[in-house]
Amino acid sequence: WIYIGLLRLHLLIPSSPIDPGKKPAAKVNQLNWLLKSIRSNLLSYRLHFGLSYGDFSPDSPMTRQLLLQSKHTSIKRDNQEKKIIERPTNSPHFSELFREVHQFCRTTASVTNVLSLLASIENNSSEFNFRSQEVNWQCSASSFCCRLSTCYSMYEDITIPIANEIRSIQRGLRELALANNTQSKKFIEIV
What is the 3-state secondary structure (H, E, C) of 123-169? Predict the structure, then answer.
C-alpha cells in the first residue's frame, strides 16, 4: 500500500497552477476559431467558384476536404465541450490548491520522509519513537485530507484521487506498525 500510494500520489500532483478544468474550455475556443476559419475558406471558395463558373455549391476535392475538416473539427469541439468543468465563482483559486498539495508532498508525504518512517517501523527502533512518529504522520495526513475535502470541495476531480492515495499510504503505514508491534510483543513473550 505504501509504495503504490506514494507513486500514485506523486503522479497525481498537478503539474501547473492553471486549473485543468479550464483547459477544455480553452480548446473549445481554439476549435471555434479554427472552425470559423475553415467555414470562411469554404464560403470564399464557393463564392469564387460561383462567380467564376455560376455554380455556388461545387463538388470538388477542395470543397470535400474543407467539409471534412469542418466535420472533424465540430466533432472535436463537441467532445471538448463535454469535458468542460464549471467551478462556482466563489471557489478558491486553483493556485492555492496547487501550492498546498505541493507543500504537503514536499514535506509530510515526501518520498524520503515516508521511507524513513517506513524504515524506522521495520527496524523496530524504540517502539515508542516509531509509534509516535507514525501517529504524528497519520494525524498530519488526516488533517490535510480533511482540509482538501472542506476548503477545496469545488475541485473534487483533483482532491478525491489525491486523498485516496494519501489514505493508501496511511493504511500501509498503520498495518505495518501494527504488525511490527504484534511481532515485538510475541518476541518479548518468547524471551
Answer: CCCCHHHHHHHHHHHHHHHHHHHHHHHHHCHHHHHHHHHHHHHHHHH
Q: How far apart are CA 86 and CA 78, in angstroms?
A: 16
DSSP labels for 25-67? HHHHHHHHHHHHHHHHHHHHHHHHHHHHHS-SS---HHHHHHH
From residue 176, how far is each of 1, 82, 123, 130, 170 by CA, in Å? Answer: 10, 43, 11, 11, 10
What pTM does this model have? 0.67
Distance CA 174, CA 163 (A): 16
pLDDT tens, residue by residue, 92-115: 888 899 999 999 999 988 888 888
